[in-house]
Amino acid sequence: MTALRGGVTGTVTKASPGSVEETVARLADLVAARGMQVFAVVDHSGEAARVGLELRDTKVILFGSPAAGTPVMAAVPLSALELPLKVLVWDDDGQTKVTYTAPETLAERFGLPLELAGRLAGIGPLTDDLVGT
């Protein structure tokens, strides 16, 4: 796991070769190809610009599968605070980064048994494919 600026632990950050826009589009394609769905794309920088503020290119993609997430939320209702899964795609001084909360962190936070924690683990391979590692 990599810590972001400001000491945020429990997150994983990977460098993406594409722009923020390209990375978001590719992530949406990969999510769909795996039979999941994108529930929302939150354009933080776009909304900031809309009210006259400046923010580095910053977008959060919420995605998942009701078949995978529902058993987790049924067992641990508070896990709905973190589901669907989220990936932050952001510009870090000209380098696109992809950051998400590590599945192990989520499992520990909510005391998920291994069977349920495994339902969240696909975010690692998905983001590896996204960034080409």
Keywords:
6 helices, 39% helix, single chain, 133 residues, TATA-Binding Protein, alpha+beta, 5-stranded antiparallel beta sheet
Break the fold down into its secondary structure elements and pairings:
Elements: E1 11-16, H1 20-33, E2 37-43, H2 44-50, E3 58-64, H3 66-75, E4 85-92, E5 95-101, H4 103-110, H5 114-117, H6 123-131
Antiparallel strand pairs: 1-5, 2-3, 3-4, 4-5
How would you portray this structure in words?
The protein is of the alpha+beta class and about 130 residues long. The protein has a single domain, classed as 2-Layer Sandwich (TATA-Binding Protein). Helix content is about 40%, strand content about 25%. It is built from six helices and five strands. A five-stranded antiparallel β-sheet has the order 1-5-4-3-2. β4 (about 85-90) and β5 (about 95-100) form a beta hairpin. α1 packs across α6. The longest helix is centred in the first third of the chain and has 14 residues, at about 20-35. The mean pLDDT is about 95.
